[in-house]
Amino acid sequence: MEVAKPKGGRPRKSAATLRSRTVRFRVSEAEYLRVQRKAAACNLTLSEYARQAVTSGRILRRIGPEELRLVSELTRERNNLNQLAFLQHAFGVASHEEELRRILRFYDEVIGRLKQKL
User: Fold this and answer.
1) What number of other Cβ atoms are within 10 A of residue 36's Cβ?
2) Is 52 exposed, middle or buried (0-12, 13-18, 19+ CB in 10 A)?
3) Start-to-end C-alpha separation, the chain
4) What is the number of H-type helices and E-type strands within the chain?
5) How many CB atoms sit inside 10 A of residue 57's CB?
6) How far is residue 48 from each of residues 37, 45, 64, measured CA to CA in Å?
7) pLDDT digit of tens for each residue in the chain (118 aa)?
């Protein structure tokens, strides 16, 4: 008697999520280049950009590696800010004014860079 071995790999997609149909349409060279640039600006493939445009009418921009790095920096500085706020509330320590100003300048700088990216 043989025991069936489970196959490797990821499980099959359900029929509802399987993309089995193809939609094709023609565009001019200028239109193609414009759509390709817009997709690249959103960090999406041309297929994903077109799929979002057709199905929802909204394009959700994918966050790029630079934005993720900036968010990570903000998170680290947030921890510093929380520690300073704790000291202020717990012990009434007000001698961290320069550190707070540095963190606020950092936040302003990172937020400015994020706005430029978006």
Assistant:
1) 12
2) middle
3) 61
4) 4, 0
5) 7
6) 13, 5, 15
7) 566 776 788 888 888 888 888 989 899 999 999 999 999 988 899 999 999 999 998 888 778 888 888 888 888 888 877 887 777 777 776 666 777 778 778 888 888 877 776 6
